[in-house]
Each structure stands twice: as C-alpha cells, then as structure tokens.
Amino acid sequence: MSRTRVERNISYDDEKKKYYVNLEFGRDARGRQIKKTRTFARLSDARKALRLHEVQRDFGALTQPNDTTVAQWLNYWMDAVVRPNRAATTVHGYSQMIVNHIIPQLGDIPLQSLSPQRIQQYYAYLCNDCGLSPNTARKHHDLLRNALRIAVMQDVLARNPTDRVEPPKFKRPEPHFYDVESLLRLLDAVKGTRLEPVVYLAGYLGLRREEMCRLRWKDVDFQGKTLCIHRARTMAGSQVIEKDTKNRSSTRLLHMPDEVIRVLRAERRRQRENRLFYGADYHDTGYVLTWPDGEPYLPNYLTEVFSKFIRKNRLPKLTLHGLRHTFATLANHSGATIYNISKSLGHSTVATTSMIYTHLLDTTHEQTIEAVAQSLRKGSRERKRQRAE
User: Which residues of the chain have pLDDT under 50?
Assistant: First the structure.
C-alpha cells in the first residue's frame, strides 16, 4: 500500500484510489492518544469531514470512538438507569422487549454504527415478520429512544438516531363499554358468584383491576360509606407486585352507593364463614377479593375468569377494563362533568380523560348540530307561515 501525504491529516492511496483522514479525539484515561481513520473517494469529501471534526472538537462536541454494542449498552442502561428508577412492571416489560426482540436483531451492532435506516427496518420487521401491532412496535421505539437519549447525555453518542426515523403510528384503542341494559344483565348474571363484588367495584366505581386486587377491608368504611384507593396489586410476568397507585390522582377516597355496600357486606360475611370452615388453614390476608381460603386472587386470573364468564353467559363482548369505560360513559350520560369523571377514575389530568373518551364524552358537536337544525326548522315554519298569508 502506497500512501502519500496530501495535506495535514489527509493522505492518498494510489492503489486503492482513496483518501485517508486521520481524526484525533484527544487522549484516554491512560494518556494514550485516540485516533480514528476514515476513507473517502474524493478529496473534497475528506476535507469536509476533517473540517467538521475539528469544529466539533473546538466546541467540545466530539464523541470518542467506542466499541460498545447495542446489547452492551442496553444491559448497562437497564442496570444503571431503569432498575433503580422504574417500577418492577416496567422493568419486566422492558426486559421482555430487549431479550426477545431487540438484542436478537440489533444487539451485535456497535452502538455508534446504529443507523436510522437500520432502526426503521427493525420497526418494519416487528410489524411484518413478528405480527406485532403498531402500538406494540411503538413501545419498542419509545424504549430505544429513551435508552439512546441517555447515551447522548453521557457522550457515548453524538446524536440520537431515533430522532431521524418514522416511529410506528400509535392508535388509541377504541374503548368498549356497556349501555345501561347490558350492565343490568351482567349484574343479574353475577349475583351470588365470585365475580359479583368485582363487577360492582368496576361498574359502580370505575376501579382499575390492580386497584380492586389490592383493596383491603381496612380501606372500606361502611359507616362513612367511603372506600380508600391508595395502593395497587399487579403482575410482572409471574411475579405479584404491590406498588403505589398509577399517579398521585389515583390515590382517592370514593363514595360507596348502597348497592356496593350491600355486596361488600355480603362478601365479608362469606369470608367470616369461610374462616370458621377452614379453621387453621384459613389465610387471613385482609384482602377484599379472595379465594374461599382467604388467599387473594391473582390480577391476571380476574381478567381471564371475567372474559370466560361473559362468553359462557352469552353477554355482549366486554373486557374487565371495559367496565371502567362503562362507568365513565354512564356517568357522562347522567350529566356528570368531565372534571368529576376524571377525579372518580383517578386520572392524572382531565386531559387524560378527554384523550381516552374524547368522542364518547364530547356532546358539543351534538348540541351544535341540533342548534343548526332548530334554526332551520324555525326558519322553515316562518317561511310556510309567510306563504300562507
């Protein structure tokens, strides 16, 4: 190989017909100089790359060469950033995406070589080859964006490649809910079953599944007719997790109507009878929703058994979370304001409620259309009267 110096930090190889640019990145922790060589077909491109490098160096914007792979960075990010600062459910969800999808597809790529094009191809792979929904693929984008944002902050990357991709388009799921007649049919069907308190808590109060599963008798005030929501019980894979409620607004004191009080009193009587029946084998856990031996239901179990119950009784299709949507829509149709609905649901802001139920709770368009229709009717009647005269 025959290289000749063309100008400072640029040389030319006669055999390969390429220009070589020597880029200096300062010194490492041991005082050794860090250099990197790039090749170009044209001298103008070589000069441009050298000038850009020197400008970035002068402004302190250089990122030193690093051989860290995507897999190595994600493992570091999970250990140093995610696990100490995120809920166990979030850690589990991230781990599943990283282990099952991201590392097999992108893990061996050097982090500094991860291009927007390769990330875009990864999103297409998730949707086309893995059959994931765009909403699920969007979660992968959010994970990568957050992980690479930390890499930029810690000077491992110069810029975040996810800023230059088209992320999978998120489509808010359509909320499914019951009308009054369907909910009454469900309430009749669950009488005397293990699902009766579940349906009343979700349908009458709009509780989330994890809120119901964490509810304890000490949180229920029969005399004051109130119920306190301040903790949640959910699943991270096969592990049961108890945690704070979803947000500050989710911690709330709710009024209990007489129907809910009646059902909860009956449930408490059943638990007292079971305590006598099981004797020493009874587990007095203090939870409201339990098996006959006192052990609390797993959150995932409630979701599954509710869906089976709906199918078995040939009721209109609905998920357990759909009862929460039912509460919101029935409250709206009864004249409750969106602010009060938001407070009952425990949403962080009224905007969250509006975003989820925008076309279900917004009756402004109906009022507008009816106002126009009334105006036209009035005009039509006036016109007919004038013609008759």
Answer: none
